[in-house]
Write a structure and sequence with these properties.
The chain is α+β, with helices and mostly antiparallel strands and 281 residues long. It contains ten helices and ten strands. The strands form three sheets. It has a four-stranded antiparallel sheet. Helix 8 packs across helix 9. The longest helix has 24 residues. The chain is globular, with a radius of gyration of 20 Å. It starts with a helix and ends with a helix. The model has no long low-confidence stretch (mean pLDDT 83).
Length: 281
Protein backbone atom coordinates (compact mmCIF):
# COMPACT_ATOMS: atom_id res chain seq x y z
CA UNK A 1 0.00 0.00 0.00
CA UNK A 2 1.23 3.49 -0.87
CA UNK A 3 -0.15 5.65 1.92
CA UNK A 4 1.50 8.76 0.47
CA UNK A 5 -0.62 8.55 -2.69
CA UNK A 6 -3.77 7.90 -0.68
CA UNK A 7 -3.12 10.81 1.68
CA UNK A 8 -2.29 13.28 -1.08
CA UNK A 9 -5.42 12.45 -3.05
CA UNK A 10 -7.89 12.36 -0.15
CA UNK A 11 -6.53 15.61 1.26
CA UNK A 12 -6.94 17.20 -2.17
CA UNK A 13 -10.47 15.86 -2.68
CA UNK A 14 -11.73 16.41 0.88
CA UNK A 15 -9.17 17.59 3.41
CA UNK A 16 -9.61 17.50 7.17
CA UNK A 17 -10.79 21.10 7.35
CA UNK A 18 -13.98 20.59 5.33
CA UNK A 19 -14.79 17.36 7.21
CA UNK A 20 -14.30 19.16 10.50
CA UNK A 21 -16.28 22.26 9.50
CA UNK A 22 -19.25 20.20 8.33
CA UNK A 23 -19.02 17.47 10.99
CA UNK A 24 -19.29 14.90 8.22
CA UNK A 25 -17.77 11.47 7.69
CA UNK A 26 -15.39 10.03 5.13
CA UNK A 27 -16.64 6.50 4.41
CA UNK A 28 -14.47 3.54 3.52
CA UNK A 29 -15.70 0.19 2.22
CA UNK A 30 -13.60 -2.97 1.81
CA UNK A 31 -14.61 -5.65 -0.67
CA UNK A 32 -15.35 -8.51 -0.70
CA UNK A 33 -15.68 -8.37 3.12
CA UNK A 34 -18.09 -5.38 2.88
CA UNK A 35 -16.47 -4.00 6.00
CA UNK A 36 -17.57 -0.36 6.48
CA UNK A 37 -15.71 2.26 8.47
CA UNK A 38 -16.16 6.01 8.76
CA UNK A 39 -13.66 8.68 9.73
CA UNK A 40 -13.65 12.36 10.63
CA UNK A 41 -10.05 12.78 9.46
CA UNK A 42 -8.29 11.69 6.27
CA UNK A 43 -5.25 10.52 8.23
CA UNK A 44 -7.37 8.03 10.17
CA UNK A 45 -8.38 6.26 6.96
CA UNK A 46 -4.85 6.35 5.54
CA UNK A 47 -3.25 5.05 8.74
CA UNK A 48 -5.44 1.94 8.58
CA UNK A 49 -4.85 0.99 4.94
CA UNK A 50 -2.34 -1.75 5.72
CA UNK A 51 -4.85 -3.49 8.00
CA UNK A 52 -6.96 -4.62 5.05
CA UNK A 53 -5.27 -7.67 3.57
CA UNK A 54 -6.72 -9.32 0.48
CA UNK A 55 -9.28 -6.52 0.14
CA UNK A 56 -10.14 -3.92 -2.48
CA UNK A 57 -10.40 -0.58 -0.68
CA UNK A 58 -12.98 2.02 -1.71
CA UNK A 59 -14.14 5.36 -0.32
CA UNK A 60 -17.34 7.41 -0.76
CA UNK A 61 -16.83 10.25 -3.25
CA UNK A 62 -19.15 12.40 -1.11
CA UNK A 63 -18.93 12.60 2.66
CA UNK A 64 -21.90 11.53 4.78
CA UNK A 65 -23.73 13.81 7.20
CA UNK A 66 -23.96 11.04 9.79
CA UNK A 67 -22.00 7.92 10.60
CA UNK A 68 -23.36 5.00 8.54
CA UNK A 69 -24.98 2.23 10.55
CA UNK A 70 -25.76 -1.48 10.19
CA UNK A 71 -23.00 -2.22 7.71
CA UNK A 72 -24.28 0.30 5.15
CA UNK A 73 -22.05 2.80 3.37
CA UNK A 74 -24.57 5.63 3.63
CA UNK A 75 -27.03 6.83 1.03
CA UNK A 76 -27.44 9.55 -1.57
CA UNK A 77 -30.01 11.21 0.70
CA UNK A 78 -27.54 11.67 3.56
CA UNK A 79 -24.51 13.11 1.77
CA UNK A 80 -22.97 16.30 3.11
CA UNK A 81 -19.92 17.36 1.07
CA UNK A 82 -19.75 16.98 -2.71
CA UNK A 83 -16.20 18.06 -3.64
CA UNK A 84 -16.70 17.92 -7.41
CA UNK A 85 -17.74 15.65 -10.27
CA UNK A 86 -16.38 12.30 -11.34
CA UNK A 87 -16.30 9.64 -14.05
CA UNK A 88 -15.45 5.94 -14.24
CA UNK A 89 -14.14 4.80 -17.62
CA UNK A 90 -13.50 1.08 -18.00
CA UNK A 91 -10.86 -0.08 -20.49
CA UNK A 92 -11.66 -3.03 -22.75
CA UNK A 93 -9.86 -6.29 -22.01
CA UNK A 94 -8.60 -7.88 -18.83
CA UNK A 95 -11.37 -7.51 -16.26
CA UNK A 96 -13.84 -6.03 -18.79
CA UNK A 97 -15.22 -8.19 -21.59
CA UNK A 98 -17.62 -5.55 -22.93
CA UNK A 99 -16.57 -4.64 -26.47
CA UNK A 100 -18.20 -1.19 -26.32
CA UNK A 101 -15.38 0.40 -24.32
CA UNK A 102 -12.22 2.34 -25.10
CA UNK A 103 -9.42 -0.02 -26.08
CA UNK A 104 -6.66 1.84 -24.28
CA UNK A 105 -5.87 4.64 -21.85
CA UNK A 106 -4.84 6.75 -24.85
CA UNK A 107 -8.31 6.37 -26.40
CA UNK A 108 -9.91 7.34 -23.09
CA UNK A 109 -7.61 10.38 -22.88
CA UNK A 110 -8.74 11.55 -26.34
CA UNK A 111 -12.33 11.25 -25.14
CA UNK A 112 -11.57 13.31 -22.01
CA UNK A 113 -9.92 16.03 -24.09
CA UNK A 114 -13.10 16.43 -26.11
CA UNK A 115 -15.05 17.27 -22.94
CA UNK A 116 -13.35 20.66 -22.88
CA UNK A 117 -12.42 20.59 -19.17
CA UNK A 118 -9.15 19.04 -18.06
CA UNK A 119 -9.45 16.67 -15.08
CA UNK A 120 -8.19 17.80 -11.70
CA UNK A 121 -7.16 14.24 -10.89
CA UNK A 122 -6.87 11.12 -13.01
CA UNK A 123 -6.43 7.70 -11.40
CA UNK A 124 -5.57 4.45 -13.17
CA UNK A 125 -7.84 2.06 -11.31
CA UNK A 126 -6.06 -1.02 -12.64
CA UNK A 127 -8.53 -1.75 -15.42
CA UNK A 128 -9.70 1.74 -16.31
CA UNK A 129 -9.67 5.38 -15.30
CA UNK A 130 -11.38 7.12 -12.40
CA UNK A 131 -11.45 10.82 -13.15
CA UNK A 132 -12.27 13.86 -11.03
CA UNK A 133 -13.13 17.51 -11.65
CA UNK A 134 -12.84 19.35 -8.34
CA UNK A 135 -14.96 22.38 -7.53
CA UNK A 136 -13.20 25.54 -6.40
CA UNK A 137 -15.40 25.39 -3.30
CA UNK A 138 -16.98 22.09 -2.23
CA UNK A 139 -20.74 21.94 -2.60
CA UNK A 140 -22.26 21.55 0.87
CA UNK A 141 -25.66 19.88 1.10
CA UNK A 142 -27.75 21.43 3.84
CA UNK A 143 -31.31 21.52 2.49
CA UNK A 144 -33.52 19.44 0.25
CA UNK A 145 -33.00 21.91 -2.57
CA UNK A 146 -29.23 21.47 -2.18
CA UNK A 147 -29.64 17.72 -2.54
CA UNK A 148 -31.77 18.18 -5.64
CA UNK A 149 -29.11 20.43 -7.15
CA UNK A 150 -26.35 17.92 -6.38
CA UNK A 151 -28.37 15.13 -8.03
CA UNK A 152 -29.03 17.31 -11.06
CA UNK A 153 -25.35 18.15 -11.49
CA UNK A 154 -24.22 14.52 -11.40
CA UNK A 155 -27.01 13.38 -13.73
CA UNK A 156 -26.25 16.09 -16.29
CA UNK A 157 -22.55 15.26 -16.17
CA UNK A 158 -23.23 11.53 -16.53
CA UNK A 159 -25.54 12.24 -19.48
CA UNK A 160 -22.86 14.41 -21.07
CA UNK A 161 -20.28 11.64 -20.73
CA UNK A 162 -22.68 9.00 -21.97
CA UNK A 163 -23.69 10.87 -25.10
CA UNK A 164 -20.10 11.67 -25.99
CA UNK A 165 -19.21 8.03 -25.40
CA UNK A 166 -21.91 6.96 -27.84
CA UNK A 167 -20.18 9.07 -30.48
CA UNK A 168 -17.19 6.77 -30.03
CA UNK A 169 -19.39 3.66 -30.06
CA UNK A 170 -18.91 3.12 -26.32
CA UNK A 171 -21.33 2.32 -23.52
CA UNK A 172 -19.88 3.96 -20.42
CA UNK A 173 -21.02 3.26 -16.88
CA UNK A 174 -23.34 5.92 -15.51
CA UNK A 175 -21.96 6.72 -12.06
CA UNK A 176 -24.12 9.68 -11.13
CA UNK A 177 -25.31 8.34 -7.76
CA UNK A 178 -24.13 10.49 -4.87
CA UNK A 179 -23.27 7.50 -2.67
CA UNK A 180 -20.85 6.17 -5.32
CA UNK A 181 -17.65 4.54 -4.07
CA UNK A 182 -14.33 4.69 -5.94
CA UNK A 183 -11.00 3.01 -5.37
CA UNK A 184 -8.43 4.66 -3.11
CA UNK A 185 -5.21 5.44 -5.02
CA UNK A 186 -2.15 3.78 -3.58
CA UNK A 187 -4.05 0.53 -3.00
CA UNK A 188 -4.39 -2.47 -5.34
CA UNK A 189 -7.09 -3.86 -7.62
CA UNK A 190 -7.81 -7.54 -6.96
CA UNK A 191 -10.75 -7.86 -9.34
CA UNK A 192 -8.77 -10.43 -11.32
CA UNK A 193 -7.03 -12.56 -8.65
CA UNK A 194 -4.56 -13.81 -11.26
CA UNK A 195 -3.50 -10.25 -12.06
CA UNK A 196 -3.38 -7.99 -9.01
CA UNK A 197 -2.56 -4.49 -10.24
CA UNK A 198 -1.87 -1.14 -8.54
CA UNK A 199 -4.31 1.76 -8.32
CA UNK A 200 -2.09 4.69 -9.25
CA UNK A 201 -2.42 8.44 -9.60
CA UNK A 202 -1.63 9.57 -13.15
CA UNK A 203 -2.46 13.27 -12.82
CA UNK A 204 -3.19 15.36 -9.72
CA UNK A 205 -3.24 19.02 -8.91
CA UNK A 206 -5.02 20.07 -12.10
CA UNK A 207 -7.39 23.00 -12.30
CA UNK A 208 -10.44 23.35 -10.07
CA UNK A 209 -13.71 24.64 -11.50
CA UNK A 210 -16.67 26.74 -10.47
CA UNK A 211 -19.98 24.95 -10.75
CA UNK A 212 -21.25 27.33 -13.48
CA UNK A 213 -18.13 26.68 -15.57
CA UNK A 214 -18.76 22.92 -15.35
CA UNK A 215 -22.43 23.45 -16.25
CA UNK A 216 -21.31 25.25 -19.40
CA UNK A 217 -19.87 21.93 -20.58
CA UNK A 218 -22.95 19.84 -19.77
CA UNK A 219 -26.01 18.82 -21.75
CA UNK A 220 -29.07 21.06 -21.19
CA UNK A 221 -31.12 20.44 -18.07
CA UNK A 222 -34.12 19.60 -20.26
CA UNK A 223 -32.40 16.43 -21.47
CA UNK A 224 -32.40 14.78 -18.05
CA UNK A 225 -35.88 16.11 -17.28
CA UNK A 226 -37.12 14.41 -20.45
CA UNK A 227 -35.42 11.18 -19.36
CA UNK A 228 -37.27 11.33 -16.04
CA UNK A 229 -40.63 11.80 -17.76
CA UNK A 230 -40.04 8.76 -19.96
CA UNK A 231 -39.50 6.40 -17.04
CA UNK A 232 -42.23 3.81 -16.56
CA UNK A 233 -42.81 2.90 -12.92
CA UNK A 234 -44.49 -0.44 -12.24
CA UNK A 235 -45.12 -1.73 -8.69
CA UNK A 236 -43.12 -4.77 -7.47
CA UNK A 237 -44.44 -8.05 -8.84
CA UNK A 238 -44.40 -11.51 -7.25
CA UNK A 239 -44.02 -13.98 -10.09
CA UNK A 240 -45.15 -17.60 -9.82
CA UNK A 241 -44.15 -19.56 -12.93
CA UNK A 242 -47.09 -21.92 -12.44
CA UNK A 243 -49.47 -18.99 -12.89
CA UNK A 244 -47.82 -17.82 -16.10
CA UNK A 245 -46.07 -14.51 -16.76
CA UNK A 246 -47.58 -11.57 -14.81
CA UNK A 247 -49.16 -8.99 -17.09
CA UNK A 248 -46.84 -6.32 -15.70
CA UNK A 249 -43.85 -8.31 -16.97
CA UNK A 250 -45.50 -8.70 -20.36
CA UNK A 251 -45.94 -4.92 -20.48
CA UNK A 252 -42.28 -4.36 -19.67
CA UNK A 253 -41.27 -6.83 -22.39
CA UNK A 254 -43.41 -4.90 -24.87
CA UNK A 255 -41.91 -1.49 -24.10
CA UNK A 256 -38.32 -2.41 -23.24
CA UNK A 257 -36.44 -4.76 -25.62
CA UNK A 258 -33.46 -5.02 -23.27
CA UNK A 259 -35.68 -6.17 -20.39
CA UNK A 260 -37.28 -8.72 -22.73
CA UNK A 261 -33.87 -10.15 -23.66
CA UNK A 262 -32.97 -10.33 -19.98
CA UNK A 263 -36.25 -12.00 -19.00
CA UNK A 264 -35.85 -14.56 -21.79
CA UNK A 265 -32.27 -15.29 -20.66
CA UNK A 266 -30.76 -14.07 -23.92
CA UNK A 267 -28.16 -11.78 -22.31
CA UNK A 268 -26.19 -14.38 -20.37
CA UNK A 269 -22.85 -13.60 -22.01
CA UNK A 270 -22.98 -10.06 -20.57
CA UNK A 271 -22.84 -11.25 -16.96
CA UNK A 272 -20.14 -13.00 -14.95
CA UNK A 273 -22.47 -14.94 -12.65
CA UNK A 274 -26.07 -16.10 -12.45
CA UNK A 275 -26.70 -13.91 -9.41
CA UNK A 276 -25.56 -10.83 -11.36
CA UNK A 277 -27.87 -11.88 -14.20
CA UNK A 278 -30.86 -12.32 -11.88
CA UNK A 279 -30.15 -9.02 -10.14
CA UNK A 280 -30.31 -7.24 -13.50
CA UNK A 281 -33.99 -8.20 -13.77
Amino acid sequence: MDSTQASKFLNLWFGDSVLEETGSYLVRMDLPSRNIKSYTRVSSLVDNLDHATKQDIYYGVCSQSRRPQNGLRGSAETICVMPGLWADIDIKGGAHSNECLPGSVEEADSFLEELGVEPTVKIHSGHGLQVYWKFVDPFIVISGSDLTRANTLTKRWAKTLGLLGEKYGWKLDSVHDLSRIFRVPGTVNRKNPDEIVPVDTLIDGGDSYSIPSMENNMVPLAMIENDSRRRVVIPPVKANVQDGIPFQVEQLCDINPQFKRTWEKRRGNEFKSMSEYEFSI
